[in-house]
Amino acid sequence: MTGYRRALGPRPVRPPGPPGAWRGQRRVVPLSELAATWPGAEMRGEDVGVIDCTHDSRQVRPGWLFCAMPGAQADGHVYAAAAVRAGARALLVQRFLDLDVPQLRVPNVRWAIGPVAAALHGRPADGLSIAAVTGTNGKTTTSYLLHAAFVAAGWQAGQLGTVETRIGRHRWASALTTLEAPDLQRFFARMRAEQVRAAAMEVSSHALDQHRVGGVTFDVGIFTNLAAEHLDYHGTMEQYYYTKSLLFAPDRCRQALICVDDEWGVRLAAQAPVPVLTFGHGEGAQARITEVRCDRRGTRIRLDCADGAVELSAPVLGACNTTNLAAAYLAARAMRVPARSAVAGIANCAPIPGRSEQVAAGQPFLVVVDYAHTPGALADQLATCRELLGPGGRVHLVVGCRGGRDRYKRPETGWAALSADTAILTSDSPGDEDPQAIVEQMLAGCLDRRGCRIVVELDRAAAIGLAVGTARPGDVVLVVGRGHETTQHVAGRDIPFDDREHARAALAARGWVGDGPQVAAGRSPQRAGAHPRVRAKAGRLGLGVTACDLTHGMAEQARIGFTDPADEVSAHPVPRL
């Protein structure tokens, strides 16, 4: 036990409550000290001390500061009275409220909440070495590889991102790619108490626009790439780019690592007002990827950089991950990880949940689950699958589009899906939208079929079963869009659904269990009950219909009402509940 740990006392026990909450030593911070963090802040009432803060009235504990933050759906000021009843000792507000409790007024709670939360916890991020990863694709993979490099160096390490938050051996599932500022600072405080030396963190464009990382200066900022996404939120690619570029301001990061394989990276490298190291495949990159080798075991690259010619490998599939390997290595070295440790950590990184994750049960074909949810990421994954095919192999794709966002991407996703041999269009997480309407928009991009067989099956479990049921030795089954996610949002409900578990069930139905084939007579893939909103309306499509019976892993097809026997588009009706 180190002297620091002895002074800290026994390891704190995590109680129920907000993310990262713990019962370690608490700072009691006067409201006046918090007021000093934001110019123009005005106090009303007694200068009381607070011990933590939150923007969620349901998380309030006695002695906390409640931050009444206006949101897209509701105004936090409405919940201030409930927060006071729950024990809030003071309020952070944009307008003084008729409540008998000390209040700190600022011009904008959203802008102030990060610096206030950081000050309340004693600016814990200042005592950590933190790398922030932003970009459309590759954030999660890069952060996992970088975290593995920290661990290989023998460091106590942290990680925050889309899949989970990790502090040493402790893990929490993530609800957001980047946490709201109070939760983020609480985790940083716990990292400091747990003697974390370095952390890798994903920073989304929403987080930058909403000031969630206010009060944090990162040691390294990493830019992976930029492609059309979240334009329903940002409006234009220019605004999306501008928001991403906010990470690279001098008060946000000390050094930038920028991939210059796309025009946005080249532009950012020229405009960033902090020291920049560029990387990528092109001759203009300062750290250049000169060799790439990919197979079913993973990806290997040669990176020519300040350390010389460095050979890197990682158990991640596909050339789309080459820049992620380079980014993780360069960030690790910038954060003073020894070169050997960085190489070893990246090479031995554990499988990344839902990122080119293989589902293996001894079957003679690959089943891969990935989070790809943009047309470009889907195209990259399909290109990877082509490289992994056996002789005469085919690619069977299961893909959908998420409801309530980025409608413009749907035809482009349909077009990208045509690179598969079989594209099964299905439901993703439709939310409050009609899944059938989403698929119809995807089909608008499928007019040029180019030999791809298109199938419509809105029951996602059945779609996965169909893809697995038709795969043959040497084939690749690719299930994309949801990756690590374990729930499906349908018509206001969160329904348990894990692509990996349904893929395993479909493999088991074919007799593939564990490390090799086993007889599973009489078994068929288990279909999760579909929500009524997910029922197919094949007649509306005006398409041919194929009914599939996957019992014993057989794909027995029966033509129903085809207007054109040569039509390659088919729709599978979902059983009625």
How does this model look, in words?
With 577 residues, the chain is of the alpha/beta class. 28% of the residues lie in helices and 24% in strands. It is built from 18 helices and 31 strands. Strand 16 and strand 17 form a beta hairpin. Helix 4 packs parallel to helix 6, helix 13 (375-388) runs parallel beside helix 14 (409-417) and helix 16 (460-470) packs across helix 17 (499-509). The chain is globular.
- Low confidence ranges: 1-17, 516-577
Principal-axis shape: globular
- Strand order in space, largest sheet: 11-10-9-12-8-13-14-15-16-17-18
| Share of helix, binned | 25-40%
Rg, Cα atoms, Å: 25 Å
The average pLDDT score comes to 84
| Beta strand % | 15-25%
In DSSP terms (H or I, runs of 4 or more residues), the helix count works out at 18
Quaternary structure of the protein:
single chain
Q: Given the helix and strand composition, which structural class is it?
A: alpha/beta
Distance separating the two termini: 59 Å
Note the main sheet.
Answer: 11 strands, mixed
Counted beta strands? 31
